[in-house]
Amino acid sequence: MPSPWPLELTDGDLLLRPLRRRDRRAFEALLAENRDWLRAWDATDPVGDRARPPFATLLRWTHQQARARAMIPLLITRRGAILGQVSASPILYGPQSSAVIGYWVGSAHVGAGIAPRAVALLADHLFAEAGLHRIEVNIRPENAASLRVAEKLHLREEGLRRAFIHVDGAFRDHLSFALTAEEVATDASGRGVLRRYLAEHHSDGNGHPGAS
Fold first, then answer.
1. How far apart are CA 33 and CA 45, in angstroms?
2. Measured torsion, CA atoms of residues 125, 86, 134, 208, in degrees rounded to the nearest 10
3. CB atoms within 10 A of CB 106
4. What is the DSSP string of 72-129?
5. Which residues are CB-neighbours of 192 under 8 A, at least 6 positions away?
6. Contact 192, 186 (CB under 8 A)
7. The pTM is what?
8. Strand extents, DSSP E, 39-78
9. Contact by Cβ (8 Å): 188, 195
10. Is the sign of the CA dihedral 161, 163, 165, 168 positive or negative?
11. Could you tell me if 86 and 103 are in contact, meaning their C-beta atoms sit under 8 angstroms apart?
12. Which pLDDT tens digit goes with each residue over 96-143?
């Protein structure tokens, strides 16, 4: 079934929500602070003279794509602060019924359990609410932090894709990981991936993980 838009997903103090016009200053500051950190992992345009689109263009385009059901682009926030992004794009319906999940958090939040919770929240939504069959994540082999997210969420490694995505000036190899709906025991709340992650990692006493 189509995902509603705008969409919000929550787990305790973690909120995934759409980018808004008033987010411009905080969002651009987070990107600027993490420019060096993101350079090695962030997909880029192989046509080198194409700069990142202005905020207004990005805002308009992501909302258009979300309303067209082609993607789900969400900010990762906690207590009002923007920590990063998680998205499902492209989303394919019909025979494939799948989505590719991408994510990033600022370097200050790496290892704090933010990225796995965000990815798990979105994965559970894609399975339980959007009715998809398969999710996929593609990670550079050098990205140890992102590989740990795949490991913590029990994503199944499917192999190396040579020169798969353009990153930092060249087409780079990526490891592909996947998970299907049949591999997740989803309960009545629709939270199979997140429930498993929370059960397996350190808790703060309220059912939410600490820095793991």
1. 21
2. -60
3. 18
4. EEEEEEETTEEEEEEEEEEEE-TTS-EEEEEEEE-GGGTTTTHHHHHHHHHHHIIIII
5. 124, 127, 128, 184, 185, 186
6. yes
7. 0.92
8. 72-78
9. no
10. positive
11. yes
12. 999 999 999 999 999 999 999 999 999 999 999 999 999 999 999 999
Beta bridge partner(s), residue 73: 87
- Write the CB contacts of 114 (distance below 8 Å, at least 6 apart in sequence): 14, 76, 78, 83, 84, 105
**CB within 8 Å of 73: residues ≥ 6 apart:** 18, 19, 62, 65, 66, 85, 87, 89
Please give the structure tokens belonging to residue 183: 């591999």
- Domain architecture of the chain: domains with CATH: 9-200 (3.40.630.30)
Distance of CA 86 to the CA centre of its chain: 3
| Residue appearing with tokens 């050098």 | 142
